Amino acid sequence: MAEEQARYPLAGINEKARFTQLEDHKWQVVRRQKIGDRVVEAREKWMEWNPRYNSLYAEWDPGMMIRAHGHNSDHIVFVLKGSMTCGDRVCGPGTHIALDHGDTFGPFIAGPEGCTSYMIMMGDPGSFPADPEGFEKLRRERGVEQLPDAQLDIPEWFTDSRNAVTKDGS
Fold first, then answer.
1. CB 131 within 8 A of CB 28
2. What does pTM read for this prediction?
3. Which of 98, 105, 110, 158: disulfide with 60, CB 3.0–4.6 Å?
């Protein structure tokens, strides 16, 4: 009796895998600022968000600033196109940033062409500020006005704490 040849893919191998496309997800505006007469945004598409992790695709407009901060989970950032600075380090395409739970990084400033990245947070994606006074000074020096946060479409089990720490959403 001839041995049966394995057929690929194996039966049942992809039954629990979840597949989506970028276009399946809506943009969430997570931060807005005004630089001169121009409004800039940080937008995210949440590819998968559950209590164990959040994976997202992010686009930041040129000049968008994100405060120095930490996360309540391990956090990975991978720059896909454009650039940003993280503190004094320029991060272009191919840059991988790993942050352990409770550690801090930033501030971030999107480069002249903006920045597109992919991020994963393993656990609670909530954040906390690392240097609010320093960020406020940097915003004033660059003429950046923080705009109120837009409403997010978030899971019922997650609390949006963006404005809980600072009144202006920084």
1. no
2. 0.88
3. 110
